[in-house]
């Protein structure tokens, strides 16, 4: 049972027993006064919360309640999780119905996390247990009734419940899958000369994790080309781009859903092998040749 301290610190806890059975409540070893099995509590600080057990006259445990303290609306409350920026985030790689959510990590081993998700009134979404990895917690969820070819009508709502001893917090996030889409980076980047040898063609492929029907789920690509110590940017919905070969050093590509204002993928980059080294070698050979010519000229001048 969660008690919101700011809204209503008073709570009545009833022991579920047979009628007219004499009972008493305990918190640890200390007895609590009750009226006909109903425990009246005022929860204002951590010491007021905790585990309460209902006992018969013989000491048998008949019922128990866990009272948690919720300080959401108190101005000077200390958070369980550090809220730097957006604490709870979710993302999806495609429209299959599988999505991931993330939140800040903590070193406190006494903290428990419970994660739930639903679309409208439908309980079709199942989520794994939260896993800690690389400074954050993550959870994987699956919407088993999601259809990638239908327009979303109801948003998904996720709830993160956080318990630290007898303190409670919750975080909620609502979204459509199209709003949190972030594709994997484009793959198989490459560069080739065109037949006329006057241009080069850079090309890439859709990420394997993206939806197979590219015509139905198109991506748009942001391309950065580095050449002659300058960066050129270009946006296209094709997977190839032709340009003049003027000392191209590298190029990078990122992708996002063409029709929705969702997130760009991370960059995927291709660097030409030994391009700069070859140029340096040519410059070095040229410089070496000039030096040798000067030496020969000096020897000839001395002979004369």
From TrEMBL:
GO molecular function: cytokine activity; cytokine receptor activity
Alphabetized Gene3D superfamilies for the sequence: Immunoglobulins
Residues in Interleukin-12 beta central domain copies: 86-164
Chief site of localization: secreted
InterPro entries: FN3_sf, Ig-like_fold, IL-12, IL-12_beta, IL-12_beta_cen-dom
Residue ranges, annotated region (Disordered): 276-304
The keyword Disulfide bond appears for this protein: yes
Keywords: Cytokine, Disulfide bond, Glycoprotein, Immunoglobulin domain, Secreted, Signal
Keyword Mitochondrion belongs to the record: no
Record's subunit section: Heterodimer with IL12A; disulfide-linked. The heterodimer is known as interleukin IL-12.
Family, as annotated: Belongs to the IL-12B family.
Listed PANTHER family: INTERLEUKIN-12 SUBUNIT BETA, INTERLEUKIN-12 SUBUNIT BETA-RELATED
Protein name: Interleukin-12 subunit beta
Lineage of the organism: Eukaryota, Metazoa, Chordata, Craniata, Vertebrata
Annotated gene: IL12B
